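quick one, 106 residues, struct below
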Amino acid sequence: ALLGGEGRARHVYAVPGAESDVLTVWREVLGEQFWVASRDEAIAVGWFGPKIDERVHGRIGDVVAAAHDDVVITASVNEPHESAMVGMHGSMTPVEQLVPLLEVRS
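---
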């Protein structure tokens, strides 16, 4: 029904009753380049931290796909600006999570 998130970390909001079918298809099509999980699986393995507030639960997609290869899922018609970007981030790879910090003290 809806696509959320960003190119490297998509949330899919399925039509009620189709969640399992959507999960199966996304795993079959994207499984070699994305980690694909149901909402409950993603929460259980800590994709959103050790504990999420119940208010946040419904905001997480029925299916969540996080890229581990150099790929994105774009929605060029609905998100023309994001789709035109050269660089994207948002997944769970070390290069996207381990950002160096430079601290200068004087």
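The mean pLDDT is 89.
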